[in-house]
């Protein structure tokens, strides 16, 4: 890569030592006639550009300015060139500064500049980029010292896009580029995402149906209480309360029998709970259920049973049994 | 390691207990919500593409300022091609707020082309005076397009065409920059009003 380098050593000038007013005057005189240490504050200034040629109208191009400054000196942000139009054909679009490596009491400061040219060239020609200055300041004890680095102007070479005399056309509009087709939206990505979400949701729905023993997992052996709860709930809608109560009791009995794999009677409850500790929290409601069942099927007065364990209680018990069953057999492992 | 592993597994298992019933209900709901949202987006994109196709085919479709940027651009181009630039202004402002730099550059190019076509019309009719500001407006639009997207080659080419119609000169008193008096014979090379061939 060929770079363009302009070396300007010893261009620095001491501006002021602002401790006392008379020192300022002294410094002005001294800088004019004496080799001051201030001259060493700014070393070489080098401008590098990776491609300062072959630029068309509207092209952006970069420049790197390397400024050697004494240790402790830093460029003042306010003195950097501001992004914006510089001349009628040149914009400065970006400016940034970063400290580089330090060596022999000097630090290399790297200034990155991005320009944009709007020069509509008729032939290949060289153009001058404006020079600018950057103020470096040092904060030493009791005094502020500043030095100015002068970045020299440099040249770029711009190229034309078209021949000087284009062939004549019937309609001058033909000189213009035809408009490109309007950009379209791409619905493929949201469509693919919609399908992915839909299949994900369907898989989740299947898992939920299996967990709750909904259709088509209605007759899952591992969800006996879920089936019982469904039957009890259906009884609640029946007009004949007596028959509904009996059917609900029978449904719960079937659920218990299927869960245990054998017939469970009232006196077996303790053993059942020992075998299935997941339902231990429901010992009292189950006890009431067995008493109510005995009253209905073997007792004389079915209304006593409805007092021992009213129908809403029965429903609540069935629902809690189904929930305990789901929690105990999570994922259908048993 | 041997002691922490089973305990970690146990902790996870204990945490999974209360989380599971919530998860198993939330997952299908989240899936359905996501599928609905994405289907809505896809439907909107399809609708926008149909509107763009209609505008490209020359059928006028009303477009609100809060429409998709691509639709805004299609409408701006439709209006610019018919020299209805006053109607396009609010849409360009809306596109500047919502669109990507590439789309905004395309809108500026359409605007510049419209101005330049107007200028060509004036020049063909022999009205040189009103053509100059129109060329200036076109150049401004192309320059804005290039600021937004420096690799917009159509804008570069058309800016070159416009620049040869009316060149700008460095202002007097400005020291920076190039100073290059151009040969007037070379500047006015492709003025459309130039006589073509012999009478």
- Spatial shape of chain A: elongated
What order do the SSEs of chain B take from the amino end to the carboxyl end, as H and E? HHHHHHH
Any idea of the CATH topology of the largest domain in chain B? Serine Threonine Protein Phosphatase 5, Tetratricopeptide repeat
How many domains in all of chain B?
2
Give the uncertain stretches of chain B in residue-range form.
Answer: 171-179
How many separate domains make up the residues of chain A? 2
Q: What general form of chain B does the structure show?
A: elongated
Widest sheet, order of strands of chain A: 2-3-7-6-5
SSE order of chain A, as H and E?
EHEEEEEEEEEEHHHHHHH
Most extensive chain interface and residues per partner: A-B, 64 and 76 residues
Task: State mean pLDDT of chain B (0 to 100 scale).
Answer: 85
How much helix is in the residues of chain A?
25-40%
What are the low-pLDDT stretches of chain A, counting only 5+ consecutive residues below 50?
Answer: 1-38
Major sheet attributes of chain A: 5 strands, antiparallel
Sheet bearing the most strands of chain B, described? none
Class by SSE composition of chain A? alpha+beta
Query: How many DSSP E strands of chain A?
Result: 11
Oligomer: heterodimer
Portion in beta strands of chain B: under 5%
């Amino acid at each position: 890569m060929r770079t363009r380098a302009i070396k300007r050593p010893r261009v620095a000038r001491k501006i002021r030592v602002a401790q006392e007013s008379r020192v300022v005057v002294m410094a002005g005189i001294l800088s004019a006639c004496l080799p001051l240490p201030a001259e060493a504050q700014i070393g070489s200034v080098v401008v590098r550009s990776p491609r300062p040629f072959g630029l068309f109208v509207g092209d952006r191009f970069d420049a790197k300015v390397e400024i050697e400054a004494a240790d402790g000196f830093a460029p003042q942000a306010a003195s950097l060139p501001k992004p914006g139009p510089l001349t009628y054909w040149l914009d400065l679009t970006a400016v940034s500064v970063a400290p580089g490596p330090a060596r022999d009491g000097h630090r290399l400061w790297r200034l990155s500049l991005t320009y944009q040219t709007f020069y509509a060239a008729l032939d290949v020609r060289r153009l001058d980029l404006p020079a600018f200055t950057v103020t470096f300041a040092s904060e030493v004890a009791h005094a502020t010292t500043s030095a100015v680095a002068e970045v020299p102007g440099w040249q770029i070479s711009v190229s034309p896009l078209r021949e000087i005399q284009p062939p004549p056309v019937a309609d001058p509009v033909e000189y213009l580029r035809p408009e490109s087709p309007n950009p379209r939206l791409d619905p493929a990505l949201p469509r693919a995402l919609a399908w992915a979400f839909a299949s994900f949701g369907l898989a989740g729905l299947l898992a939920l149906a299996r967990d709750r023993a909904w259709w088509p997992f209605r007759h899952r052996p591992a969800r006996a209480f879920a089936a019982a709860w469904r039957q009890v709930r259906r009884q609640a809608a029946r007009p004949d309360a007596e028959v509904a109560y009996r059917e609900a009791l029978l449904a719960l009995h079937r659920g218990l029998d299927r869960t245990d794999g054998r017939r469970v009677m009232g006196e077996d409850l303790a053993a059942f709970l020992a075998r299935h500790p997941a339902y231990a929290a429901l010992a009292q409601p189950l006890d009431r259920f067995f008493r109510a069942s005995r009253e209905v099927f073997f007792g004389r007065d079915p209304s006593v049973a409805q007092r021992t364990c009213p129908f809403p209680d029965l429903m609540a018990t069935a629902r809690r049994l189904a929930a305990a069953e789901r929690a105990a057999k999570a994922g259908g492992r048993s | 390691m041997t002691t922490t592993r089973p305990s970690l597994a146990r902790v996870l298992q204990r945490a999974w207990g209360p989380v599971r019933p919530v998860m198993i209900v939330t997952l299908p709901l989240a899936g359905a919500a996501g599928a609905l949202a994405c289907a809505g987006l896809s439907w909107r994109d399809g609708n926008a593409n149909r509107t763009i196709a209609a505008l490209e085919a020359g059928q006028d479709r009303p477009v609100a300022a809060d429409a998709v940027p691509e639709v805004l651009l299609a409408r701006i181009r439709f209006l610019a091609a018919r020299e209805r630039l006053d109607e396009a202004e609010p849409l360009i402002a809306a596109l500047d707020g919502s669109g990507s730099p590439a789309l905004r550059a395309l809108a500026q190019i359409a605007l510049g082309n419209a101005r330049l076509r107007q200028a060509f019309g004036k020049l063909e009719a022999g009205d040189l005076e009103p053509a100059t500001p129109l060329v200036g407006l076109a150049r401004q639009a192309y320059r804005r397009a290039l600021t937004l997207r420096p690799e917009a080659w159509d804008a570069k080419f058309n800016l070159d065409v416009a620049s040869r119609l009316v060149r700008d000169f460095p202002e007097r008193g400005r020291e920076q920059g190039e100073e290059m008096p151009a040969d007037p014979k070379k500047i006015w090379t492709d003025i459309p009003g130039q006589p073509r061939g012999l009478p």
